[in-house]
Amino acid sequence: MQLALFIIFGALAVAGALNLLLQRHPINSALSLVVVMMSLAVLYWSLGAEFLAAAQVIVYSGAIMVFFVFVIMLLNAGEEERTKGSRAAYIVGFPGAAAIFCLLSFVFLSERHAFRSSNVGGYLNNITSNISEISSVLFTKLLLPFEVTSVLILVAILGAVVLARKEQ
Amino acid sequence: MSHLTDFQTFLLLSILKVVVVLVITLMAVAYTVLLERKVLGRIQNRWGPSRVGPFGLLQPLADGIKLFLKEDLMPIASERPLFLIAPIIALSCALISIAVVPFGGMQRVTVNGVGVEMFNVADLNIGLLVILGITSIGVYGIALSGWSSNNKFALLGSLRATSQMISYELALGLSLVGVVLRAQSLSLRDIVNSQSAHGLLSWNFFGGFQFVAFFIYIMAAYAETNRAPFDLPEAESELVAGYHTEYSSMKFAMFFMAEYANMITVSCVATLLFFGGASSPFGHLIPDFGGPVVHAILPILWFVVKVLGFLLLFIWVRGTLPRFRYDQLMSFGWKFLLPMAMANIIITSLIIALRA
How far apart are CA B299 and CA B295, in angstroms? Predict the structure, then answer.
């Protein structure tokens, strides 16, 4: 069950990400990104992070991507033109992507004994509930970073208000 | 002995539950439309549909046949794939969220060694968040329908709908936090159980002092479902029909059904969170009577009665209140509902902290 979910939604996430790059119309790209976000949410859920999954859906696909789509609709952005791409992207991008891929696979392969002990698939039933654990960690051990992030977001909101306000 | 494994039994039972719940929900949608037409007719001093069948009871059937047989127009300038997928997104999102709603009391039945909840498709420990998430996905159906139709009125309608739904989602989500704080769980089953101790008095609306949250929730929910007095996205007098101007036949019917299915979901959530779900208002005042069948059916009856009350409220409000202006709608949501919801959270959590 767990494996089937992983294969289906992992493939869906990769397909969505590729489609995001290949589509020429911005709204199609934005919708592919929504598919990626939703597939990631299902993967989180199947790993037992149900609160993270719900937050992923509500925050990313439900709020941020809706704003993306909204802005694209308002600006009525047309199709993009295909370009050859910059040379810097070819010189730096491909080796960089390859390096990150190698690093990630090295880490996962070298740490794979740690994954084997995890309760894969057992999380799909109703027994585990980690919301209270997340909140207790968030409000005790990680209180300072949490509050700093909130202040940062508040500053960003104020900046947006200042920028958007009309001159008097 | 049977030849089915546990997983196959579970799968078959789940499919059975999904089919039953889906059929009942779609029937409820059809008859909510009829109820609305009838009640609205009476409010406006006319009969409403009365020709098809006794008291017009077969009207939904006739409507369904009519919508199936209508020509399905496809605007030539529309964005074809998105135009087709938009009503599907709208309807499926509206129908999925009903899956986490517990309709009746706790009734575990064991079939073939697998225990399943009878009156609940899926009892999730984050049921409330799932409903909120699916509602926020449902915005895409409306946003895309307006954009892909390539029509100014449709685009304006969907822009209005999107911004309205995003704005009111905040107040909606925050108004539920007080209830979650009291129940200390996001599972809808736990929230219902936390209100079942003393009947009416322990419901969040009365005993929990969450009536402020309830009024915030119900106003935000009216805006979420694009119903009067917040039905600006489909304001006939300004926007023809809003986001579904270009849709015809079954595609139009899907938007229509999505709106009513959303109404039912919202009413179910209001019932579960503020009015004790499937629990009886009399608590233990009335002694238990009847056998196991009555025990199973009575909670469902209470649930249906409460949901029906909310649906009637929806219709009553539509028949009574005029439409808001757009700037009034936005300032009402951001400057009144949102601060009220935050104040409710602060006061509720203070009281809970003082009591602890």
Answer: 7
